[in-house]
Amino acid sequence: MEFFTAVFDALTTTQIDLKLQKVEYLQTNFYTYDMQHDTEIQSLVTPSYASFCKVIHPTRLQRPKGGNSKESLAKILHSIAHIEYNAIDLGLDAAYRFRNLPLEYYNDFTTLASEEVLHFRLLESLLKMLGYSYGDFPVHDNLFCAMQNTQKLIDRMALVHKGLEAMGLDANPFVKKKIEQAQTPLKHEILAVLDRIMHDEIGHVAKGVKWLTYAQELCNDNRSLCEILQEYDFNVIGKIPNIEARLKAGYSMQEIESLQQSLK
């Protein structure tokens, strides 16, 4: 079977369970695929979740301050599940779109997508315990737009996999604090899932760091992360960054400080 065709098939699949199964199959059988780098590169025109999620502008989303009701807790979990579902497609598109790279690159992003599948499954299970499902609340398409706007490897690694992925590292401790203060019997289960996500996401950001460095060396591009991101209207650092996690993922202190200074 041809790798890039199989990846694009998983990327464009709009049935949740089928997409998850296809990604897991890709990762499990990665070394059995034929890598034909000259196959046509197509684009995902609309998000794979558009048929079952109501997409609205980010400023219209209502973000609960706490998680003491079932609905508010479900909204918190749903927003994280949406990020993880997006991240599946981001990993798949990174593996699909950029050609003639080392085999390690494709294995890294197939593995990343499969780990995002695990995160999504864990969050989906928690949602169902509360009586909700993915698609029950409105979502935004910021991450899809970031994917569409980065058609060069350097830009994709900088904005998405080193940049926006690291926003999750910054947000995780604050979400944990909300859950710790919530009155819910699922508290320990949710906190365990958030810990698992944090552990894996450090590795995902590290992949972005690694392949951004590779892409820059390949093109002899010495721009800083801030310089690469100047043309994009995205913040890639929280107001209170998770410095420890970012350093573990391969950020330098200088990069963290520069990003803080560039906050919009």
TrEMBL record:
Superkingdom of source = Bacteria
Question: What would be one Pfam family of this protein?
Answer: DUF455
Q: Which InterPro entries match?
A: DUF455 (IPR007402), Ferritin-like_SF (IPR009078), UCP012318 (IPR011197)
The protein here is known as: Ferritin-like domain-containing protein
Q: Which organism is it from?
A: Helicobacter trogontum
